[in-house]
Hints:
Layout: H1 2-7, H2 9-16, H3 47-51, H4 55-58, H5 63-71, H6 77-81, E1 87-90, E2 94-95, E3 106-120, E4 126-133, E5 138-144, H7 145-154, E6 160-166, E7 168-170, E8 173-176, E9 179-183, H8 186-191, E10 197-200, H9 209-223, H10 233-238, H11 244-252, H12 257-288, H13 300-308, H14 315-329, E11 334-340, H15 346-359, E12 363-367, H16 371-385, E13 392-395, H17 401-413, E14 418-421, E15 435-441, H18 448-456, E16 464-469, H19 475-480, E17 486-490, E18 501-505, H20 509-524, E19 528-532, H21 548-558, E20 564-567, H22 573-585, E21 590-593, E22 606-612, H23 619-626, E23 637-641, H24 647-658, H25 662-673, H26 675-679, H27 681-684, H28 698-714, H29 724-734
Parallel strand pairs: 2-3, 5-8, 11-16, 11-17, 12-14, 12-15, 13-14, 15-16, 18-23, 19-21, 19-22, 20-21, 22-23
Antiparallel strand pairs: 1-10, 3-4, 3-6, 4-5, 6-9, 7-8
Helix pairs in contact: 9-11, 11-12, 12-28, 12-29, 13-15, 14-15, 15-16, 24-25
The structure holds adenosine-5'-diphosphate and magnesium ion.
Amino acid sequence: MTQSLFDNPRSKLQKSGEEKPLENPFEFLNPPNDGGPHGPVDHSASKFDIINRPIAAFRRMSASRLKQLEKLGLKTIGDCLDNYPRSYLDRSELLSICDAGRSGQVETIHGKVADKKDIPTRAGQSFTKIFIYDGTDGAALVAFGKRAGYLKKSLKLGDPVVVSGKFKRSDWGIETTTFEYEKLTNEEADLIHTGRIAPVYQLTAGLQQRSMRSLMAEIAREYADAMPETIPLETRLKHSLVGRARAALQIHLPDSHEELRQARRRIIFEEFYLLQLGLLWRKKRHETRRKRIKFTTEGEKALALLNSLPFQLTKAQRRALGDIMKEMRSRSPMNRLLQGDVGSGKTVVSAMAMAWAVDSGYQAALMAPTEALAHQHYETLSAFLSPVGIQTVLIKGGMPAAERRAALTALETGYAGVGVGTHALIEPDVKFARLGLAIVDEQHRFGVNQRVRLMKKGVAGAHTLLVMTATPIPRTLAMTKYGDMSQSVIDELPSGRLPVETKRYNETRVDFERVFNLLIKELKKGRQAYVVYPLVESSEAMGDIRDAVDGHQRLSNRLPDWNVGLLHGRMSGAEKLEAMEKFKSGETHVLVSTTVIEVGIDVPNASLMIVIHADRFGLSQLHQLRGRVGRGPHQSYCALVGWGKTDESQARLEAMVQTTDGFEIAEKDLEIRGPGEVLGTRQSGLPDLTMAHLTRDSEALKAARDAAAAFIDENPDLGGQGCDAVRAWLSRKWGGRLRLASVG
Ligand code: ADP
Ligand code: MG
């Protein structure tokens, strides 16, 4: 125990002398509820009765006040305890005004309003200065417009105030323009030197900071102790986490910066811990279900396929295949995510798994998000599979009736071993004789329901699902968004691939000519090129967009010796397919398109990707687009044309130039866009993270996942009295979402 305490981050700080050591590190731990290391956590689930009490039961309050609180999502005592402050006003270190304005940091002063002045500007407007005096010197709060009016009204001469802000010294004296302030009562003014760090809460119309703060303080003082512990003692010791009750109190009423830091650490850990408990429990529950289909160990066709490949599988491909086969063979259902950068060779791996399913007497289905992609998969897979005696059929929307009937019959009778298609595959009249393996490509394009519907077509629910994605997922995201799936990563490209050379161009005449010359050069070498635009047709609102249709026209005019094809979302399925086929066969040399070619299209002879208005694309989208080239033996190029008007778009384009590694790109994307947007917790059915931050707190996330895994291992069904509180916490955080298993 002592050992692990020495490892904790706080002891490191201790050494560097940044923070005062704690007298007694154990002080941070609430007395244990019992001794068992992974045993019961908190017997008193009845504590939930307390924290689930409505606020109204705690204190008499007006209906309008209750409404205001409800607007902020606060209905129960527990809601209030979980309503963490938005920020803190540091009153613990008050500075005399005569010392303010030298540190360049945010400083806090305390004084009385001594004067108010409107100062006219030359432009005929005015600003306001409110002078605060504390006996050592005076400082001015400078405000403009609405804020000035509000300040003048709310601050009366003689009012005691506390102000936190960045103060500056100049010929005008000590001033601040960026500040937060708070008017005090006389009583508070007397108490202020006791030095509190005061919480600042989110408010709603009609609710003052002061009333909010005192309500929260009362509730925290009264009920923080009732917060049931969720994290086992051993885990708390290992990671030096303060107890739940203490964290609940200190987050609202911090005694010191250190206490606040510890409270935050604890709450962040807990958010991850409960998230992981839920995910891992869901995973476990899924795994312990018995699968009623069995895959053989012998794989005649799979072996033949392996031997027929014109290349050696990469080490990463073999590892992924090994994972998949092992799990298919096991008695529990498979729910696996296969990640691999564009071009890493996922299709071959999936073909092997399908061949093996057929060897075992089952059929396999592969669902792709677009018709073009389904068609391509169909072609690739038939080329792989028909030589080893496996029939593949394609199911898509708008097929001629006779063709469709033939395909359906082939699946229903079991003549075809593999069915490939778009979501047309999950229509009710598509029936399989013995579907044993369901594969979904580019899962983020499909909803959970569509996945489930495909699986339901299987033998006994065919609990064998493989999900493929060419969008690499950062580790932190893989642990959260896909935390209930087992995962395989193909993190290696087939050897001999040359990284795509990427360059940025501005939207100037000169740069367009440069890009055009690059295009001519590649065409003369016998290569092909993509030109991608963000929209189909220019609309009024985006008048400056050179749309694909227009671009196609111009390029056709300028390239009389070459064939320029066009592909966009408003074309019919057949037209799109024709355009794609012509490009694949080499009949068209340049394909002008919108992002319909984004995923999965494989034309090895294409060596140039030109993206127009590249600043309008997301990072992972750009990476997908670039992945369309560099698939053959030739050196390939990617030209990103765009200004990058915002810092964010600059950062995206820069990231593209700097790396071709999909995982690095994915991490960058997470950094630029922020986890909220990438995680999309609401859609993904995960509880929100309120204090924890996916990238900033990634260490805590990993530790919490390990701790949760250990807990689940010892309490696989979260049953028994000892888990009452944990279950109650899970249902509090997850609500009904925990029931919604990822695959149904
Ligand atoms: P992904 O679907 O992961 O983007 P694909 O499966 O389409 O990648 O593979 C891209 C290209 O690389 C295909 O032409 C495929 O035949 C080829 N390929 C796959 N694995 C290997 C390998 N181990 N060595 C050489 N080429 C490979
Ligand atoms: Mg692919």
